[in-house]
Amino acid sequence: MKSITINGSQRESVGKVSTKALRNAGKVPCVLYGGDNPLHFSAEELSFSKLVYTPNAHTVVIALEDGSTHNAILQDIQFHPVSDKILHVDFYRSFEDKELTMSIPVTFKGTAPGIIAGGSLRLNKRKLRVRALPKNLPDFIEADVSELEIGSKLYVTELANENYTLLHADNTVVCQVRVSRAAMKAAQEAAKAEKEGEA
Predict the structure, then answer these.
(1) Which domains does the chain have, with CATH numbers?
(2) Could you give the CA distance from residue 176 to residue 165 in angstroms, rounded to a whole number?
(3) Which end of the chain is more exposed for a tag (fewer CB within 10 A), N or C?
């Protein structure tokens, strides 16, 4: 999985006043959990663009001014309800020998016969929750739709992989091919015309 480096400065004071001063300076207050003690730091708001405003999943390397680096994943992010500015970010420390849980994007490949026949592909899950060791976290999960006929569903069990565990019920539908409205309307009109012809 690709990694993004975020350069940060450790925060000495974590009260409301210092937090407001940070935000006014274009910085985001952050916390790194998962160690002995939470680590408070701040980083430039711009440094989060590749991490937040993307459908892709990334691990993070937090590089602090004192030269220390910390491997982590994004845990939670808070946005301002009006301006949409990033208010606060929580990270969770990752260790090579400890499994992590992350949301991984699903990419769809292939052409479903059901779509060629006039159906439409409905994407029920664009991301799936995965648990794995950091080295086994995939960049994406590939879902092959080339076998789906109209009315067929692709279940999460068909995407199972020995490198990671999918944290969804076995009956979770990832995508399905449904009868499109146009095809349904055409079938109804054909049936109606046939009925009128019989009359």
Answers:
(1) 3-94 (2.40.240.10), 101-185 (2.170.120.20)
(2) 22
(3) C
